Amino acid sequence: MDLKQHITELAQRFLPDDSYYLVEVIIKGSDAKQKVLVLVDGDNGVNIDICASISRQIGHNLEENETIDKAYTLEVSSPGIDHPLLLTRQYQSRVGKRLKITLTSGDEVLGKLLEVSEDSIKLLKEAKKGKKIETEEIELTFNDIEKSFVLISFK
User: Fold this and answer.
1) Which domain holds residue 24?
2) Quick one: which of 52, 82, 125, 127 has the fewest CB in 10 Å?
3) Same domain, yes or no, for 92 and 144?
4) Are 142 and 120 in contact (CB under 8 A)?
5) Hey, how many other C-beta atoms are within 10 angstroms of the C-beta on 43?
6) Which residues pair with 77 in a beta bridge?
7) Has residue 112 been placed in a domain?
């Protein structure tokens, strides 16, 4: 089993309950030092205590079993605003939020997430017409979406 798969299995085992889920495990770095990033999300968000608990448990297991034989750092966090939405479940907990979506065609779409199904989303698409913003309800399949980011409003 490769390192990424091993850490994925550990992270899933150490999630506190079914309201939390693993988004992604990213391993990067050189042969001399690796960075292991474990991204966890929850239906109601994730707090620092949950991340710290998962980090301690993964770290303890890696050290106890001497899984990584070189210097490494382990970081467990929520995906944050700089990581795109990757899972259907992430979209579900962001219904009502504004998204910036890059389509596989290269086009960008802005709008409010209205609904999520197994293979698509409904969005209230925003389009500028002069000084006004007009909206239109559209449906996008996940296959049409290259990446999606939640837009943060400071209003």
Assistant:
1) 3-77
2) 82
3) yes
4) yes
5) 14
6) 39
7) yes
Predicted confidence at residue 29, as pLDDT, reads: 84
Q: Are residues 105 and 145 in the same domain?
A: yes
pTM: 0.86
A 10 A CB-CB count for 61 gives 15
pLDDT tens-digit map of 16-64: 999 999 999 999 987 778 899 999 999 999 999 999 999 999 999 999 9
Query: How far, CA to CA in Å, does 22 sit from each of 57, 75, 124?
Result: 15, 13, 28
The predicted structure's pLDDT at residue 32? 76
Q: Do 29 and 71 sit in the same domain of this protein? A: yes
Cα–Cα distance measured from residue 44 to residue 97, given in angstroms and rounded to the nearest whole number:
14
Q: How confident is the model at residue 81 (pLDDT cuts 50, 70, 90)?
A: confident
Do 45 and 25 lie in one domain? The reply is yes
8 Å CB contact between 58 and 14: yes
- Amino acid letter for position 78: S
Residue type, 24: E
Look at residue 124 and tell me if it is in a domain: yes
**68 contacts 34 by C-beta, under 8 angstroms:** yes
Asked whether residue 155 is domain-assigned, the answer is no
